[in-house]
């Protein structure tokens, strides 16, 4: 399967590395910036390109993995080339039809995971959600997804977008709270590392308990003495506001 990576960011990097690992090294890596294209191409043994004009037209699949606000423009430029291959994007928040009109066969392959270039992941465990413009295209997109992961599911655009909203709550917002905890600890000469067993157990419990069942803490107990003490201790207004908002939400759910 000949694949071309359109993009060289976090998601593109992990997909390209996984493809190489599975014996499907991308034949080209495109990025607007020369350095990004070169870096990923060197990691995968691919050819770097920085112009859409230089992208080959004989690939089986073109994987567009760029920022959401650039996706439609990149797809439109790619659609001006005489390509017959399948064009897919990897965005959880973007509908499949953003590719409609730019190519005949198109789809989505959304790997639901948080990716950072410097952190390796076990791609085989990542759930991948696929959708395609027609059944034949879907079979090929699914085949590609099964090269990447052992967990492949079919999902339409609306379902996937709701999945992405939920993922923002579960991952991005949770990590923001970790960042706020880190800020508080640093202000008082403490290291975030002491929190890791707590964080790990919080996540571990979710394998056997519903989030509502796993909730603990002063808000769950409606312990206003502790809550008011914490609010008095917090001098940063943003931290105080977030603490109050989260406390109110937990109390409503308890």
Question: What would your notes on this structure say?
Answer:
The protein is of the alpha/beta class. The protein has two domains: 3-155, Rossmann fold (3-Layer(aba) Sandwich); 161-253, Orthogonal Bundle (N-(1-d-carboxylethyl)-l-norvaline Dehydrogenase, domain 2), CATH 1.10.1040. Helices cover 49% and strands 13% of the residues. The protein is built from ten helices and eight strands. It has helices at 10-21, 34-44, 68-79, 135-148, 157-187, 196-205, 211-214, 218-221, 224-233, 237-253, and strands at residues 3-6, 28-30, 47-49, 61-64, 86-89, 106-111, 127-132, 151-154. An eight-stranded mixed sheet has the order 3-2-1-4-5-6-7-8, with helices on both faces. Strand 2, helix 2 and strand 3 (47-49) form a beta-alpha-beta unit. It is elongated, with a radius of gyration of 22 Å. The N and C termini lie far apart (51 Å). 28% of the residues are buried. The mean pLDDT is 97.
